[in-house]
Design goal:
Helix content: 25-40%
Strand order of the largest sheet: 5-4-1-8-9-10-11-12-13
Protein name: 2-keto-3-deoxygluconate kinase
CATH class: Alpha Beta
Number of strands: 13
GO molecular function: kinase activity
Family: Belongs to the carbohydrate kinase PfkB family.
InterPro entries: Carb_kinase_PfkB-like (IPR052700), KDG_KDGal_kin_Halo (IPR054871), PfkB_dom (IPR011611), Ribokinase-like (IPR029056)
Keywords: Kinase, Transferase
Order of helices and strands: EEEHEHEEEEHEHEHHEEEHHH
């Protein structure tokens, strides 16, 4: 039985070898990458029966995305679009050290998902699934994705599913003002909010410490749980008035892309497997640390590795 359903866009990530520039490289590495599918893969790797919903072009590139996600145990509920009129979004990731840093170039115009509708997706699984998850990236892609996000959150709630949402603000997609309006329209359909502290300040105009932000959001929007992530300062979670704090686990960074999604995957996986909020925060932090040691967007990890990090093993200490 499917426990977790996620919904969103997955793109093809194209990267030159570390240290090379896009304008001079002669080779590109291709991998799947998308916030919600990253969460589905991370959760599946940690023992959760997970599914990912989306819309893809019926083309070799679209089928490649499905094959890669399925290879990690993720079920896929995909609406297939005409490849003559739609395409698969791509993004180019150029790794670079300081002072240049890493840069991302998106090429996602006319992606198939921008035309998705609720009727195209296999929502019958909601009747037996436990949790629905999506992010603030998806409603930014088009009016159709915004309407479908709202409809799926509502349908999941009517089916008795818990619903989680990661703000995941992207400045290249919309302004803070537009994002805030869209997010707050969805908040009434959300039980668990993941809010990076920087996004809460930039988009939701929240001030104060992370715990004050969590209390304010929970009180105003009646969230059951609010998780505020603070980068190197760790994370806090508020549930039913009780506050839980979690530091980061140290990690040698090979690839930081997807760290936030790995955190969410670890948290949801532990909760779906019966863990409490404190345990889920530990799993979230450990999964995020492990992801940083893995190339690509996906948290290719195991429950045993996560437990080893939590217990202080695996070469990673608190």
């Amino acid at each position: 039985m499917t426990a977790l359903v996620t919904f969103g866009e997955t793109m093809l990530r194209l990267s030159p070898p570390h240290g090379e520039r896009l304008e001079t490289t002669r080779e590109l590495e291709a991998r799947a990458g998308g916030a919600e599918s990253n969460v589905a893969v991370g959760a599946a790797r940690l023992g959760v029966d997970a599914a990912w919903f989306s819309k893809l072009p019926d083309s070799p590139l679209g089928r490649r995305i499905v094959s890669e996600l399925r290879s990690h145990g993720v079920r896929t509920g995909v609406s297939w679009a005409d490849p003559e009129t739609t395409r698969l979004g791509t993004y180019y990731l150029e790794h670079g050290g300081e002072p240049r840093g890493t840069s991302v170039i998106y090429d996602r115009a006319d992606a198939a998902i921008t035309t998705v509708t609720p009727a195209e997706l296999p929502t019958g699984v909601f009747e037996t699934a436990e949790r629905f998850h999506t992010t603030g990236i998806t409603p930014a892609l088009s009016e159709s994705t915004a309407e479908t996000t709202r409809a799926l959150l509502r349908a999941a709630g009517e089916a008795g599913m818990s619903r989680s949402f990661d703000l995941n603000y992207r400045s290249k997609l919309w302004s803070p003002e537009a994002a805030r309006e869209a997010y707050e329209e969805l908040f009434g359909e959300i039980d668990l909010l993941f809010a990076p502290y920087r996004d809460a300040r930039t988009v939701l105009d929240r001030e104060g410490k992370a715990i004050e932000v969590a209390h304010g959001l929970a009180a105003e929007f009646d969230f059951e749980t609010v998780v505020v992530t603070r980068g190197e300062k760790g994370a806090i979670a508020l549930r039913e008035g009780e506050v839980h704090r979690q530091p980061v686990f140290e990690a040698e960074t090979v690839d930081a892309i997807g760290t936030g999604d790995a955190f969410v995957a670890g948290f949801l996986a532990k909760r779906l497997r019966g863990g409490d909020v404190a345990d889920a925060l530990e799993w979230a932090a450990a999964t995020a640390a492990l992801k940083r040691t893995v190339g690509g967007d996906l948290a290719v990890v195991t429950p045993e590795e996560v437990e080893a990090v939590v217990d202080g093993g695996g070469g990673i200490d608190r």
